[in-house]
Amino acid sequence: MLQGMLNGKNAVIYGGGGGIGGAVAEAFSREGARVFLAGRTPEPLEAVAAKIRHAGGTVDTALLDATNEQAVREHADDVVAAAGSLDISLNVIQHGDVQGTPMVEMPLADYLRPVATAVQTFFLTSQAAARQMMRQRSGVILVFGGSGDPVPGLYLGGLLTAFEAMEAMRRQLASELGCYGIRVLTLRSGGIPETLPENMEGAGEIADAITKSTMLGHAATLEDVGYAAAFAASDRAASMTAATLNISAGALIDR
């Protein structure tokens, strides 16, 4: 029997009922991890969990507000109590960003909301995971998003600012946690057309813009994200930390 890259690992995914969270959860499970899905809405969590169980994986779900400090800490404690360790943490909850409105026309509250939410939730979930991982002297914290240069015609509000804030936090965490054997990495996609809501105004134009910005002529898929996340979280990437995995098909150029 083939050994999965994540056999024996326990992974927490905040926002596990969403498109990205679900894709990563399924990839982690295929590679042998026990997956703990956390989110605020039960139906999407259970839908992802059902797919994993149907494929023979092990998955747990929890209703959780990932901006609530006590709830996040208690959930991390529960994961370790149930599984023995917390090896991988990924936060992909929605940040409440408003897109499609130029900065000069956007209310301050709409611009700041995704920034404040991203910083708060990433701080809390990374801190809770790191405290468990420091005792283990191992673990991986993954960040999804990264950032690139603004694209003319795409009004992303505070989203890019939120990504830049998380990148700064990722760099700091990597420098502080490396001595405990904890790795901190970012996955940068440049945009995933599959995640755009079908009823979103201008979704087709945005998807086309994402694709046209790539060098390969196609954008990253949810499956691509899952594969990359599983590799980054595995021991095959044991020498990687304080870095980004660029899966943008050339839309984002590393310097």
Supply the key terms:
single chain; 255 residues; alpha/beta; Rossmann fold; 7-stranded parallel sheet; 7 helices; 15% strand; globular
Describe this protein's structure.
The protein has 255 residues and is an alpha/beta fold. The chain has one domain (10-246): NAD(P)-binding Rossmann-like Domain (Rossmann fold). It has 7 helices and 7 strands; from the N terminus they run E-H-E-H-E-H-E-H-E-H-E-H-H-E. Strands 3-2-1-4-5-6-7 form a 7-stranded parallel sheet, sandwiched between helices. Helix 1 packs parallel to helix 2 (42-54), helix 3 runs parallel beside helix 4 and helix 4 runs parallel beside helix 5. The protein starts with 9 loop residues before the first strand and ends in a 9-residue tail after the last strand. The model has no long low-confidence stretch (mean pLDDT 93).
Give a summary of the structure in a few sentences:
It is built from 7 helices and 7 strands; from the N terminus they run E-H-E-H-E-H-E-H-E-H-E-H-H-E. Strands 3-2-1-4-5-6-7 form a 7-stranded parallel beta sheet, with helices on both faces. The chain is of the alpha/beta class and 255 residues long.
